[in-house]
Design goal:
Layout: E1 2-4, H1 5-12, H2 16-24, E2 33-34, E3 37-40, H3 41-54, H4 59-71, E4 82-85, E5 90-94, E6 97-100, E7 108-109, E8 120-121, E9 127-128, E10 138-139, E11 150-151, H5 158-166, H6 183-203
Antiparallel strand pairs: 1-3, 2-3, 4-5, 5-6, 6-7, 8-9, 10-11
């Protein structure tokens, strides 16, 4: 599954201009496609980690950490690494230890891993949605539709429901088309779709 820029921005917490800049400077080039720009699920996970780190440390340290991984011949996709910060440096988490990538490269420390998927406020003060639950009745699971947001406990894409609602179907009547979709789930899908559309509007 590939994610367009607007949905990748909402799920990761990055702005559209940040995504453009990070592509241009090779912090993260999309795996999926360049024209139009599409991100893979792994790309969105990595972007979210970058935004979370960026909310606590300067971007230069994020770049330095990624460059250090390359110097150490750790060439996996950035989403493969568990990274965290103490507000000063960035650490690569390996089992029960963390290795400093920025301030004292190679030094091992003991730290707990914070959940980058939880909601947080990015550097601009914008609230970033819970990655796994962008709305109470929506969820993101990599194994379901390649990570595309769906109505919780279903395979029904959020945008399919949102398009029904925007097309005039009352949220209470969506269950006629998709019996597992409750009225509140339909409202959540429409609300999330509106947030994605707002990002799309700012990008245009």
């Amino acid at each position: 599954m590939s994610f367009p820029v607007d949905l990748a921005a909402v799920l990761s917490g990055a702005s559209v201009s940040q995504l453009h800049n990070w592509r241009r400077t090779d912090l993260l080039r999309p795996e999926a496609k360049d024209n139009p720009v599409l991100y893979s699920f792994r790309d969105v996970v990595a972007l979210r980690v970058f935004v979370k780190l960026r909310s606590e440390v300067p971007l230069q340290r994020v770049r330095k950490a990624m460059n250090r991984l390359k110097e150490w011949d750790l060439a996996e996709h950035p989403s493969a690494y568990r990274l965290l910060t103490d507000g000063d440096s960035i650490f690569l988490v390996e089992e029960d230890r963390a290795v400093d990538l920025v301030r004292k490269p190679g030094q091992r420390v003991l730290l707990s891993l914070e959940d980058a998927f939880a909601p947080f406020d990015n550097l601009q003060g914008r609230h970033v949605v819970d990655f796994r639950r962008p709305r109470p009745r929506l969820e993101v699971r990599e194994q379901r539709l390649g990570g595309w947001p769906t109505v919780a406990d279903t395979r029904v894409p959020y945008d399919t429901v949102a398009k029904l609602v925007s097309g005039g179907v009352d949220p209470a009547d969506v269950a006629r088309f998709y019996p597992a979709v409750t009225e509140q789930a339909a409202r959540d899908a429409a609300d999330f779709h509106q947030e994605v559309a707002q990002v799309r509007g700012r990008a245009a």
